[in-house]
Amino acid sequence: MTEQYHRWHSPNLNLDLEMLVFGDRGFPVILFPTTKGRYHQNKDFGLIDCVKWFVDEGLVKIYCPDTIDDLSWYNKGIHPADRARNYSWYDKMLVEELAPWAMHETGVNKVAVAGCSFGGYHAANFAFKHPEMVSHLFTMGGAFDIKMFTDGFYNDDIFYNNPVDFLPGSNKPELWQMNIILGTSEHDMCKDYNIRMSNILNEKNMNHWLDIRPFAKHDWPIWKEMFPHYLSTIK
User: Fold this and answer.
1) Order of strands across the sheet with 15-22?
2) What superkingdom does the record give (predicted)?
3) How far apart are CA 67 and CA 17, in angstroms?
4) What confidence category does residue 17 fall into, taking pLDDT thresholds of 50, 70 and 90?
């Protein structure tokens, strides 16, 4: 399995970002880390190894970028407005830098996005905000309501980065063309977030699969079962 390391200066964030890329061809998949995880986390915890076959067969090319959790939602040392503004710049980086990069390299005009736990938030927020750029959304143990990080403060930056708030009123036609899988499990602490998101999608008649696995907890073993299954749905 080929692996490449990239470091670049993001003009949208005005800081350096790092990323690992696995594979040399195939459908582009942007895979986000969990809470405060770095670009190498999904490799370190075995999530990349569990989909090695898809990479080796040239079916997918997986992009594992850094996030800015410490500069945005998890930074209690700055005002919630600053947390939200920083995250809006991160979203702009995805739109203007990373997603076009992945599409250009693979020759595909959309990306798949995925993530476990808080990585599921990153994936869902990007997919639902920019469905014109996303064909597949795979979340595993995701949570989708960012208001728990805003100390009661609320503004437009929070609204437009909170899927449970902006999605009900969005009518972008590409939303109904997306392949959406919400993966959770019986003992997942984020199960209720997934049920709530599924209800929102049902109210909008958006086709999706709410995959609730029995017995499992909010942890890597069940996510490593889910991820190859979900990648197999990419056509």
Assistant:
1) 3-10, 15-22, 60-65, 27-32, 111-116, 134-140, 179-187, 209-217
2) Bacteria
3) 8
4) very high
